[in-house]
Every structure is written in structure tokens, then in C-alpha cells.
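Quick check before the chapter quiz. The format below is the same one you will see on the exam, so make sure you can read both the input and the output lines.
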Amino acid sequence: MSTRPRFHPEDGRPRYVGPAVVVFPDGREAPVTASLVLRFDPNRTDNRESDRNSTWAGSVTLTADVQDVDLWDAAPGILRLPSGRESEFMATGGRRESGCSGIGPAPFVDA
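Here is the expected output.
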């Protein structure tokens, strides 16, 4: 039996997995678990320098059964980490679990 490769290889990219809050355009908030990665790859030569801290993506999943919350409505929304750092993102689909694509600096990377 062969071993399965790791889903997230140790590629040196900053990542965040943990609690967060999605703030919707109307001000509602919902607790989520976020799994995020900085997509800028320091090992590639074709990255744009402007992407260094701002090309991030991942997923968010509701952690509570919050009534009348659809993550798709966070388009755009704000993702707030426990540290208080925030960044705007676009939800890419899904009611309880959604992909997300960051807009601006990643909230989990020290600029």
C-alpha cells in the first residue's frame, strides 16, 4: 500500500487554519472556520511583486447553525481573524461552506 501525498505539502507558503468571523455587507456576522493560503509562491520567478501579500484564497465553513445565513451573500464580505486583522474577500459559492478569494492584503500574513 502506498502512502498518500499530503493535501497541503510543506511548500513554504503562509497558511491559516482556524476560527474567523465573516462580516456581511449588511453588518451581520457569522462564526466560521477558515482554511487559507497565500498563493504567492516564493519559489517561482513569474509572480508579480504586487501579489506578495495579496493573492490569497481558501475556504470558509460555518461553525454554528446560524439562521438565514448564506455564505454566498458575502460577496464581498470581510473576514476577521481572532487577532483583529481583517481583509475583504469574495465568496465563491455555497451556503454553509464556500470557497473564498481574497481582495487585498491577506489577514494572516505580516506585511
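If your answer matched, good. The longest strand covers residues 29-38.
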